[in-house]
């Protein structure tokens, strides 16, 4: 039985130890910085003197009779056969692989065919050197076999050789190693020795990779990572592979996906799946990493370090039918699986604290905001670091604000909130011209100009004539409407952004005549970036978004008895119409500006009648009266 019950000082301690087998890997390991210098002695130690070097690395002082640099990932047998020829031609008696898992793999493949002893000098974190496993690809299929004779006799870990491993490769290779350790913890062959190696490996890799990303030649961090990779390799060698490897091998063999990158994408998803079958293993990993949920923490770490985000990004063309693989193909963040504290008591306390506001709308808005923010924190398992990043972002947004710079409006714009509020407020009646956001460049009280004025005042650009009509919803002219117009210059700048310009330019207040018409001259507006030298610009860059707005003219139209209309006219064919940075483009507002060097635009703005609450009430009462009259007129139906 696996359950032993001890009684120690009055405490009942139940110790569950599953029966296990443990095959300690039988390799000689030499670890440190500069250990490559010991290669010659290690070759002699094996009684060998005719070395075939595998991999691109050149080493001096080693009795090498030949070198094969044409190593390829997933150990294709054609490559192995080429290298095999060198073994025969040069009477080789020892194989030395220097490089990543691909070089080690070739060493094993040659050992399988020749029985020659191998020395492995790993320069990535792949861990193959610590395993008796060989994976080979033939005709697009990867098959693996395990044989203790395939394991290198000696392994030289030289930290110096890893200092130049590019950050991208370091990250994905590190996640490959982490996958070995995670799988060992979840394996049916798990045992206490391997569990501890695995937890130590995961801790070291998670700790070292961010430091390597910051300073790739940090010897301490590299030592930590290589130690983690060695320990993870031991786990893999001792208990074999699990779900992440099986999926990676299938995708590597059949779709040619790169090994370490595929592991990196898959790991959080296979961990989420293990969280259901091996919750205790995930709990131990979370505790080692100091997080509440291991799969999402690993996902976030990979993304933070610039690891590949999805199988689609790795080139897998179609989404797989399997749920786990489909989620990895899209690059979803796995759902939080770990236990989470119930925070509803806290949420309710905060909501209740706002309930007594004299204005019920304030209570309702704040209460709902608190619920949604708490939900956001809980659902995303928000970390203290992430929260600090958000506070820092908002602080910097506030600090950059000035009378002519409104970073919070920009933030609201790029999050689509300005457009959402605008749509809710102003675009409820489909008959009126759709509205669009005000934007940050409107200036109160622009200079009054007569119809026909030229707003460009000599600025260079493609000449433009605009003929504007203002009507009500039935097409009747609206006279005396106040029409504020503003726009960018041909380089995309507004006058407020050009301190050398004297006075307001490319902005004016005009009035419609008795026939509802007005016209003006100007220049064709240009696409332009929203101000992106502040935190909002950083947000856009960090998420791969551009800051450009499609070219447009702004209008703010007011007339007594009508709802104010704030809108924009977009130049048909202009750039960024389908990716406007502030989500301001609406199809009905995309207008032809025909003409070549002399452009022309004609547009009719339809204003909705103003509805005051009193008017609405009167209309409702009238409707009720009418309805009552109808009922009264109807014959009684009993
Ligand atoms: P890799 O060996 O193909 O190396 C990836 C790239 O990194 C190559 O271009 C290589 O030249 C370069 N590189 C390696 N070390 C470098 C360094 N120090 N500086 C700069 N560039 C360097 O990739 P990998 O991820 O190490 O290994 C993947 C292969 O290993 C796959 O075929 C995989 O199946 C196999 N593998 C096998 C086992 C096993 O137990 N059998 C375990 C892990 C991986």
Give structural notes.
There is one protein chain. By secondary structure, this protein is α/β, with parallel strands linked by helices. Helix content is 40%, strand content 17%. The protein is built from 18 helices and 20 strands. The chain has helices at 39-45, 77-89, 101-114, 167-186, 192-214, 219-239, 243-255, 259-277, 279-289, 294-304, 323-330, 344-353, 360-379, 384-400, 407-414, 417-426, 535-542, 613-633; strands spanning 3-8, 11-16, 28-32, 51-54, 64-68, 94-99, 118-122, 133-138, 141-146, 154-158, 463-471, 482-487, 507-511, 517-523, 528-529, 548-549, 552-558, 565-571, 590-591, 599-606. The strands form six sheets. A six-stranded parallel sheet has the order 3-10-7-6-4-5, with helices on both faces. Helix 8 packs across helix 9 (279-289) and helix 8 (259-277) packs across helix 11 (323-330). The longest helix has 23 residues, at 192-214. It is elongated. Nicotinamide-adenine-dinucleotide is lined by residues 56, 73-75, 99-103, 105, 123-124, 126-128, 131, 133-135, 161-162, 164-165, 169, 173, 176, 236, 259-260.
